[in-house]
Amino acid sequence: MSAVQEIESPPARSNFVSVVAWVFIAIAAFTTFISLLQNILINTVFPVDRMSEITASDAAHAPAFALFMMQHIRAFVLMMLLAAVTMLVASIGLLRRMNWARLIFIALLALGIAWNLGGLILQQVMMSSMTTTMGHVPPDFATEFDTMRRVMLVFGAVMALGISFLFGWIIKRLTSAGIRAEFLR
C-alpha cells in the first residue's frame, strides 16, 4: 500500500465506540420514552397546583430541597426530557462518528459525574433532615431507621462513585488519540 493510500484511508472503527454508542442509544431511548410519559402525566393528570398548596402548608416540616422540587416539578421533568433527547441524539451521532456528538457526549458524561457526586451530598442532607424531624418516635424505630439510613447512604455512595468512575473511564477513552482519530476526517 502506498503512503497516499494510507493517509486517505479512514481509521478503523473501534468496537469500544460502537458498543458505548449502542448501549447509550438503548438507555437514552428508554429514558426519553419514560420522560415523555412523565411530562404528559405531570401536565395533564398530576394535580401540581394542589400538591404545591399542600407542600406550602407543611413547609416547616419538609426539607428545603423537597419544597423546591414540588414547586418546580414541571420544569424538572421537562429538563430531564431534554437531557434524555440530547443524550439520544449524541449517542446516535457517536455511532456515526460525528465529532460534535463525541464532544456533547463527553460533556453529558461529565455532567453525569457532577450529578452523581452532587446527589451524594443531597442524599446526606435529605437523610439528615429526616432524622431531625423524627422527634417523637419509639427508640427501637429510630435505631432501625438509622441502620436503614446508613445502608442507603453506603449503597448510594457505592453506586454514585461506581457510575462516576465508569463515566470518567469512558471520557478518558473517548479523548484518547486513537478514538479522536476516528472522529476527525
Low-confidence parts, pLDDT < 50 over ≥5 residues? none
| Structural domain count | 1
- Reading the helices and strands in chain order gives HHHHHHHH
Mean pLDDT: 86
The number of helical runs is: 8
Question: How would you summarize this macromolecular structure in one to three sentences?
Answer:
The protein is mostly helical. 83% of the residues lie in helices and 0% in strands. It has one domain.
Write the layout of secondary structure elements.
Layout: H1 3-8, H2 15-44, H3 48-57, H4 64-71, H5 73-95, H6 99-132, H7 139-174, H8 177-183
Helix pairs in contact: 2-5, 5-6, 6-7
Structure commentary:
The chain is mainly α. The chain is built from eight helices and no strands. The chain has one domain. Helix 2 packs antiparallel against helix 5, helix 5 runs antiparallel to helix 6 and helix 6 packs antiparallel against helix 7. It is elongated, with a radius of gyration of 22 Å. The chain starts with a helix and ends with a helix. The model has no long low-confidence stretch (mean pLDDT 86).
Key phrases:
elongated; mainly alpha; 83% helix; 185 residues; single chain
